[in-house]
Design goal:
Order of helices and strands: HHHHHHH
Number of helices: 7
Mean pLDDT: 75
Shape: rod-shaped
Strand content: under 5%
Low-confidence stretches: 1-26, 237-248
Radius of gyration: 35 Å
Structural class: mainly alpha
Number of strands: 0
Helix content: over 70%
Length: 248
Amino acid sequence: MPGAESVAPIAAGAPPMAGAPVESLAHAPDLSILGLVLQAGPVVQGVMAALVLASIVCWAIMIEKAILLGQLQREVRRLADAGDPAAANGEGLAARVQRAAAREWAEGRDHGESRGEYRERIERAMRETLAGTLRRAQTGTAFLATTGAVGPFVGLFGTVWGIMGSFQGIAQAHDTSLAVVAPGIAEALLATAIGLFAAIPAVIGYNRIARRVAGLRADALAAIAATGARLSGRPPRGGVAATPRAAE
């Protein structure tokens, strides 16, 4: 029968056609993120590992600074609401600033020292304590700035290196098809993506920390000025008022 004869070649040719996609799938590259990392060369893998490590360190710094700056915010509020510095207790910023003021306040005004000079001396002692605390609070932020500035270029280096490897593979395979080019380029571009993933949060975190520290410094300096003005107008408790400057 003609129908049976026409069906036989189709049936005979069906298995090779069905097997062709299976064979192509067996040799298809793994374009998942994990697959691209594992298939990348040692240089690109090293770049990716360095960027991931830098990102982890940056997140650790940002979390630690968020907690620390929250504590300093409470200390600055406590300093603004503080009363007598001689009664300051504890080891927080507010207590240490008040103790620094109390030491200068207890000495009283020197002979020939104006009230403005006396106030400046009290405030200078408080500002030195504040500056040391804020300086320690900013430790580690330079790493955020460095990662934000250098991270994309490190990732770009990995991308350029990976693309060079892809071109070498094309030359060796004598094939410019997308199946040959795509895996190497995808591996290379993944390095740039990781670089941006590390750099963008680092820049945002650095700017946020800088703004918060600047705000804390301004609030603390306002509280210091108020404390200096209050203390410079009265002698230490149990002390004697300072001798006014002699008239010339």
